[in-house]
Design brief:
It contains seven helices and no strands. The longest helix is centred in the N-terminal third of the chain and has 28 residues. It is mostly helical.
Length: 194
Amino acid sequence: MIDVLIGFFIATLISAIFTTRLFRLYNWYALNSLFLGLIALKIGISIDDKAMIITASLTLLFKFLLIPYILKILSIRFSIPRNILPNIKVHYLVMVVPIILVFTYYLITPVVNNFSHSNYVALAISALFLSLLLIMEHKNIAAKIIGFLSIENTLFLLGISSTNGMPMLVELGIFVDLLMLIVIINLLFKYQGE
C-alpha cells in the first residue's frame, strides 16, 4: 500500500511540474500533501506510533486543506496571474524528469542500502530534485512557493521513510517552520501584488 501511495506522491509532483495554471498547481500540491499524510498515517498505524498518527492528521489538516485554501485566497486578493508559463520548454522537461528519476535512483542506491526501505529513500531524494526543478522552472512567485512547500513535503517523506517514524520534536520543528513559511508567503504575495 505504501508503494502505491509513494507512486502517487511522485506522480502528483511530476504533474505539478507540467502544470501551466496556478490553481491547478495548488490542487496538485494539495493531492501531494494528501498522499504524504496517508503515507505517514499508514506508517504510524503499522508501527503503532501515536505521534506519527497525530503528525499525519496535522499534515492532512494543514497541508491538504488549509495551505492550498490560503494560497488561493491570497492569489485572488493580490491578483497573481493565473498563467504560470515555465522557463524550461515542455519537450525539454519530458526528457529531464525521467533523467532525474533514473539518475538519482542509481546515484543514491549504494548509499541507501543501509536503510530498511531503500527504495522509498531513493524515491524521496528523486522527489527532492523534482521539487528543485519546480522552483527553477517558474518565474511566478506562487509557483516558487509551491516548490518550497514541495521540498518540505519531500524532506518529511525522506524522514519518515528512512527512520520508520520521526521524533516528535523534529515534527514540531517542521510545523513551526511551516507556520513561518505562511508568514513569508503572505509577505511575498504583498510584494508581488504591489
